[in-house]
Amino acid sequence: MAILSFEGLVRALPTQKNGILFSDVSAIVETPVTIALIGTSGQGKTSLLRLLSLLDEPEEGELWLQNRSFRDWSPTEWRKHVVYVAQHAVMLQGTIEDNLRAASRIHRVPFDQGRAEFLMASLGLEHLGWGKNAGDLSGGEKQRIALIRALMLNAPVLLLDEVTASLDQNSKHAVEELLTDLHTQEGVTMIWITHDIQQAQAISQRVWFMAEGTLLEDTSSDSFFKQPKTSAALRYLQLREEGNY
Ligand SMILES: Nc1ncnc2c1ncn2[C@@H]1O[C@H](COP(=O)(O)OP(=O)(O)OP(=O)(O)O)[C@@H](O)[C@H]1O
Prior knowledge:
245 residues, alpha/beta, Rossmann fold, six-stranded mixed β-sheet, binds adenosine-5'-triphosphate, ABC_transporter-like_ATP-bd, ATP binding, ATP-binding, P-loop_NTPase, nucleotide-binding
């Protein structure tokens, strides 16, 4: 049984040239894997993750979670399994603890205090008092709390949208290590948007490269970074090597 699959996805947007952001987007995730979702700005990476988490519906195409069509899932149930972590962290009103408990409150599952403490320590946040107002945190602290809030769901699929964008090097590496461990130890699948090629290489087993209005390459990271199949991907990698992006 596939974990997640989709076929012929189309995202139409009136703001685009011919009204279509991307089309014919298909892939299958059969076993737990770490995927870097890359491509130049505006290709539709965030829009694809929004479809995969049912925050938006595709104009055409089909999506399956555990071989069941998205039409047969309630969006809430789907999002217990496929969790989207947005680029710009938004804190829920209240304290850090209110944010950490959000998943258990919304989905009516017991709160796992030990896991929350472990995740906070893993991301260097053990010094923060849980009674602190979440709105007062720094941008980097908010980003990590938002990630931990999502991880408290224990979802098998994580959709990560530039989740280290506002972090310093140490915190960035802590996030990469934690998420890689969750993949290895708990079999979590990650689809991770990043503009950082070093990060993409470090965290991914597979690459989804978006260009030319579609998912142009779906291949192992090793072969993508050694020898991409398309000229668009080659150009993308060359520009990054030269620092011109
Ligand atoms: N709801 C919307 N309404 C209108 N235009 C939108 C909407 N969502 C996305 N777009 C447009 O679609 C294009 C793709 O956006 P998207 O954020 O998916 O790209 P991206 O590849 O993630 O880009 P980046 O790497 O810059 O984050 C952009 O031009 C964006 O302005």
